[in-house]
């Protein structure tokens, strides 16, 4: 048996175990150890290669940009405790809800603001599901358009900065970019940072928001009974004042976090600390900075951060053994042999990521797939910044695609009993199509992703 064949068996065995729901970190590390022992026994792998693993773990520990992950998680969970989403949904819902489809448009706008404030998809979907879904159903909204809009708006935290996904993806892409530079003999490649991806994701994220709003507007025109206006007895001046009062705090936080990054005043890690402190101050002003809330936020932050970093360590071991079997060379050979050159390879990779999103979580795809295909695509001429935004947009669909889309599970958990699961699945289908269209548009017009970061930096 050749090392390449064993690398293929190792890869598909790991994917199969993940599909059956085994813990991600232990599956990656366990598969690597098992096949490492097997390869050493077959005399096609030197098990002493795992002596490099502690250096990799140490490299993760001293990686400063990754410090932003727990800080952004803290910020998102703390903002959830401030009940800022409740005020946003109520005021913006009344602001737009007096027109047909207006309540759905308001949900998308709130999703955008929460995405730019928290960057945590699960918290956004659950919060909007609990607060806006009963209002939409009471107003007479069809179950499909109501549930689909909430799920889609909740996933905007995947692409709109400050997104944890972009922080993790930037770290993986930087490694892929360095490997690609070695392949082509470039000793000084331009670095890819979370700042670049944050700036690159701004226009695609806003484009996606506009596409969602356009869809709801025309859906309300075609099916007016599915998106009726809501009735309110409050004066418009009172509604405007309430909306201004509830939108102002998250806007200030967004400007502090994103503005400091894009203007070059602070690194993502430094701005994440500003965001965490700002979220705590907002909680204090609302009287929500209690010991119990602080304890809950801290505990959940540690739990989610540990989850991410343990997966990162397991993925590092998997990558080390996979490369020891020359699996990276096999992938490079396959992708460079595809018809269509760079374009053909990119299409195949994007399709693979899209279909894997039906079954795997975005973190699994980032840590398992991207390190394997990224170096080859970049070495073949793909712009790493553009590639990162394409992958991020593509990964966003993994939250919506049945049967394992996490947004669907989050909403199902808080939706009233009368909401049928099939209607949630049917409701997200148009939004999946819109997200695929967004990937295609950015694929044909790379400047949407590259213009802003290159203009600023």
Short recap of the structure:
The chain has 457 residues and is mainly alpha-helical. The chain has helices spanning 3-19, 24-41, 53-61, 68-81, 84-96, 102-117, 121-138, 143-154, 164-184, 194-222, 236-262, 268-285, 291-324, 327-337, 341-356, 362-368, 370-379, 384-396, 406-414, 421-444, 447-456. The protein contains 21 helices and no strands.
Structural class: mainly alpha
Q: Terminal Cα separation, in Å? A: 50 Å
Number of strands: 0
Mean pLDDT: 83
Apparent shape:
globular
Strand portion = under 5%
Tally of separate domains: 1
Q: In percent, how helical is the residue content?
A: over 70%
Helical stretch count?
A: 21
| Rg on CA atoms, Å | 23 Å
Low-confidence stretches: none
Biggest sheet layout: none
- Spell the H/E element sequence: HHHHHHHHHHHHHHHHHHHHH
């Amino acid at each position: 048996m050749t090392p390449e064949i064993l690398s293929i068996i190792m890869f598909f065995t790991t994917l199969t175990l993940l599909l059956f729901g085994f813990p991600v970190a232990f599956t990656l590390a366990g598969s690597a150890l098992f096949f490492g022992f097997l390869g050493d026994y077959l005399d096609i792998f030197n098990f002493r290669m795992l002596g490099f693993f502690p250096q990799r773990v140490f490299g993760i520990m001293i990686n400063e940009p990754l410090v932003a992950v727990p800080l952004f998680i803290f910020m998102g969970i703390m903002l959830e405790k401030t009940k800022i989403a409740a005020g946003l949904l109520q005021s913006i819902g009344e602001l737009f809800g007096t027109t047909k489809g207006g309540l759905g448009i308001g949900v998308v706008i709130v999703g955008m603001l929460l995405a730019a404030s928290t960057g945590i998809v699960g918290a956004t979907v659950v919060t909007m599901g609990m607060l806006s879904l009963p209002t939409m159903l009471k107003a007479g909204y069809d179950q499909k358009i109501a549930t689909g809009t909430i799920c889609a708006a909740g996933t905007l935290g995947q692409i709109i900065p400050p997104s944890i996904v972009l922080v993790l993806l930037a770290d993986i892409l930087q490694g892929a970019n360095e490997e690609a530079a070695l392949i082509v003999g470039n000793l000084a490649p331009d670095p890819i940072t979370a700042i670049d991806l944050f700036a690159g994701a701004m226009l695609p994220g806003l484009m996606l928001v506009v596409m969602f709003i356009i869809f709801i507007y025309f859906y309300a025109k075609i099916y007016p009974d599915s998106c009726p206006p809501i009735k309110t007895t409050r004066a418009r001046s009172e509604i405007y004042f309430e909306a201004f009062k509830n939108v102002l705090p998250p806007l200030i936080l967004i400007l502090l976090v994103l503005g400091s990054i894009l203007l070059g005043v602070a690194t993502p890690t430094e701005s994440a600390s500003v965001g965490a402190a700002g979220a705590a101050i907002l909680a204090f002003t609302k009287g929500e900075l209690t010991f119990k809330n602080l304890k809950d936020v801290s505990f959940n932050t540690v739990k989610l951060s540990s989850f991410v970093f343990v997966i990162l360590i397991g993925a590092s071991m998997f990558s080390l053994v996979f490369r020891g079997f020359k699996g990276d060379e096999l992938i490079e050979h396959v992708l460079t042999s595809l018809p269509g050159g760079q374009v053909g390879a990119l299409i195949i990779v994007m399709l693979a990521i899209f279909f894997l999103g039906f079954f795997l979580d975005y973190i699994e795809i980032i840590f398992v797939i991207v390190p394997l295909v990224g170096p080859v695509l970049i070495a073949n001429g793909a712009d790493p910044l553009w590639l990162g935004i394409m992958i991020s947009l593509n990964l966003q669909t993994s939250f919506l695609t049945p049967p394992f889309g996490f947004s669907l599970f989050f909403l199902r958990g808080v939706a009233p009993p009368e909401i049928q699961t099939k209607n949630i699945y049917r409701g997200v289908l148009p939004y999946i199509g819109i997200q695929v269209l967004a990937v295609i548009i950015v694929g044909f017009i790379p400047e949407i992703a590259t213009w802003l970061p290159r203009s600023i930096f």
